[in-house]
Design brief:
Low-confidence stretches: 1-13, 94-100
Strand content: 25-35%
Strand order of the largest sheet: 11-34-33-32
Helix content: 25-40%
Mean pLDDT: 81
Structural class: alpha+beta
CATH class of one domain: Mainly Beta
Shape: elongated
CATH superfamily of one domain: TolB, C-terminal domain
Length: 629
């Protein structure tokens, strides 16, 4: 009897020692800041999906627990819970004893070991209770399953209600969503009357369906990610192949250059050898001439230097006298001491002139030299007063003066008149994702038209001004600047003013980043011209400020890179720079090469079409400019 009571106590106390995540007895119970406790291994698994943040959100109450460098390993062990777990294991005979306890009969008061489970009665039954189920006609339709099959998980018994510890005869068949506990109907009336109460069976079935759906979604997402990993590896192979091709191309260029250099080397060596032979021949000729003179002198002196000269006859004396005269003449000839030196000097004057260093240039990898390239320059039919991106390769142009209307112009130079909306002298245009056109009238209104030309709405622009400039944010909001110290942000329908962003300078043009930052340009008619980044609360970074006679026009591309065109009206040139966002500040990344563009009017527009293409317009000129980074 005492052993039975101990087991029942252990079974009852084990309910308070179960981890909410793994639903098993605590293993290294670890406590969070909020006081909730979980298995350490469960928290580690939970933390695996949150490695990108420095804290953990409690799975029960959503309170934040700060994590150190070792993350879950540095969290405190719940000493009191851990002691209870140790006591429980000691009473039950080990970690898995609770799993080995056979379920007790819930159909009678004897609390004997169950041998079967009746799905109809929703009760465990012992041998005595099993007999009526087998022989009495009132139980003939009841579905009986073996308790061994239940324990081994071969069959599911569905939901088995617990008895309420306060109201002994009542089942805990309700779930209080506020308190996160199971309760009986009487508990609901007494202590949970105003709480959100759900039927326990319905709640568990809904939770199971949710878990099943999530399991299917996890399997699908896992398959998707594995497929993506496979694609990444395939792309890695493509990258390796492309890089190997670059290496091969460089090696081939190097081999060609080496062969060319070796050929040049052989040519130079041959030229030097030819010069050496030429100088050697000239020197050999000089040497040969001197040797021949030595030979002639020696021969002549041999003939005339004779002891018998005093005994010669008249003819012999005359002959020897002639020989002496010839020898004297030979001796008087000046020795050529300079020709050899001249030849040597000529040799010394020969020098090697190295080729320009660029001759050894193997080439460059494309993309390593950031620059801009004008893809197309288009003459507009009239003065441009507004522009916006229409597609990734085309813009919509708003005209002023007598040529009122809107043109769609693409990078190939194709022009299409947009005739679906009336020509009412618009000041600017913006196009939403669904192709709705928002046009500024130059008064306190902006009109919105569907693609078929029907008017959808009218925006009554806050503030004053007659020069409303429009743009669309990446989140499809309508941005409006009216030359004052404010930017107005409307929802895509134009019916709700979501934000009013105060600005330090009068804003003439405005763009937005994906994160919601606002990039403003004061540009024309304002001195000095500045570009400033704001958040939605009006906090500003450090402004880019142009010198006198220079106006700044900014645009933001799809990657949140900011391009700024500096239009120098005094020197009639445009310099475009690329900036990266550093919080609310702009950090210059590239100053591009100067482009040959015409500046005929103070109003310009710079619009990003894609990460590598933007459009620049001024007066009657439109340029499509490619970015090579």
């Amino acid at each position: 009897m005492a052993e039975k009571i101990e087991i029942e106590k252990a079974s009852s106390s084990s309910q308070n020692l179960v981890c909410p995540l793994c639903l098993d007895i605590f293993d290294e119970p670890t406590i969070l800041t909020c006081g909730h406790t979980f298995c350490r291994k469960c928290l580690k698994k939970y933390d695996l999906t949150h490695q990108d943040i420095d804290h953990m959100v409690c799975p029960l109450c959503r309170e934040i627990t700060k994590l150190s460098a070792n993350r879950v390993d540095d969290l405190r062990l719940n000493v009191s819970i851990n002691g209870c777990v140790d006591d429980y294991h000691a009473k039950c005979g080990g970690m898995n004893a609770v799993l080995e306890l056979r379920p007790k009969c819930t159909a009678c008061k004897l609390q004997q070991d169950a041998v079967s489970f009746c799905r109809t009665c929703n009760n465990y039954i012992c041998d005595r209770c099993l007999q009526p189920h087998q022989y009495m006609t009132m139980f003939e339709d009841h579905e009986i399953v073996s308790v061994e099959d239940v324990i081994e998980g071969k069959v599911s018994i569905g939901h088995l209600f617990e008895k309420c510890s306060i109201h002994k005869q009542e089942n805990k068949d309700m779930f209080c969503d506020d308190c996160k506990v199971r309760v009986c109907l009487r508990c609901v009336v007494v202590g949970h009357k105003v709480h959100n109460i759900k039927n326990q069976s319905d709640f568990e079935q809904k939770l199971r369906r949710k878990v099943t759906a999530l399991a299917q979604q996890c399997a699908a997402k896992k398959g998707e990610l594995e497929k993506n990993i496979q694609n990444i590896e395939e792309q890695r192979h493509e990258v390796h192949t492309a890089m190997q091709k670059l290496l091969d191309d460089v090696s081939q260029a190097y081999s060609i250059k080496v062969k060319e250099l070796e050929g040049h080397l052989q040519d130079l060596i041959e030229q030097i050898n030819e010069l050496r032979r030429s100088f050697e021949d000239d020197l050999n000729i000089l040497k040969s001439k001197d040797r021949q003179r030595i030979k002639s002198i020696c021969s002549s002196i041999t003939l005339v230097d004779n002891d018998r000269l005093c005994h010669l006859e008249t003819d012999s004396l005359s002959a020897h006298n002639l020989l002496c005269d010839e020898l004297e003449a030979m001796l008087k000839e000046v020795t050529d001491r300079t020709t050899a030196e001249v030849i040597a000097k000529k040799a010394q004057e020969k020098s090697f002139n190295p080729a320009d260093k660029s001759c050894l240039d193997l080439g460059s990898i494309s993309g390593s030299d950031p620059k801009l390239e004008i893809m197309k320059c288009i003459d507009l039919r009239e003065r441009m007063i507004g522009m916006t991106a229409y597609t990734h390769t085309s813009v919509a142009i708003v005209y002023g003066n007598n040529a009122r209307g809107i043109d769609i112009i693409d990078i190939a130079g194709g022009t299409e008149r947009y005739t679906n909306i009336p020509h009412e002298g618009y000041k600017d245009i913006a196009i939403l994702r669904d192709r709705t056109l928002c046009v500024s009238t130059g008064s306190t209104e902006a009109h919105m038209y569907s693609p078929d030309g029907s008017r959808k709405a009218t925006i009554n622009v806050s503030g004053t001004g007659n020069d409303h400039i429009l743009n669309i944010s990446p989140s499809n909001e309508i941005l409006i600047a009216n030359g004052a110290n404010k930017v107005y942000i409307y929802d895509p329908t134009g019916s709700t003013l979501k934000h009013t962003v105060p600005t330090k300078h009068r804003t003439r043009q405005v763009s937005s980043t994906r994160s919601g930052l606002i990039v403003t340009s004061s540009c024309y008619f304002i001195n000095p011209s500045v570009v400033t980044v704001y958040d939605r609360d009006g906090n500003a970074g450090e402004s880019l400020q142009a010198p006198k006679y220079v106006n700044l026009y900014a645009t933001v591309d799809e990657q949140d890179r900011v391009y700024v065109a500096s239009a120098d009206w005094k020197n009639r040139k445009v310099v475009i720079r690329l900036y990266d966002l550093d919080g609310l500040n702009l950090r210059e990344r590239v100053e591009f090469n100067a482009l040959d563009m015409t500046l005929d009017y103070i109003l310009c527009y710079l619009v990003s079409l894609s990460p590598d293409l933007f459009a620049f317009a001024c007066y009657k000129k439109l340029y499509f400019i490619k970015v090579l980074l």
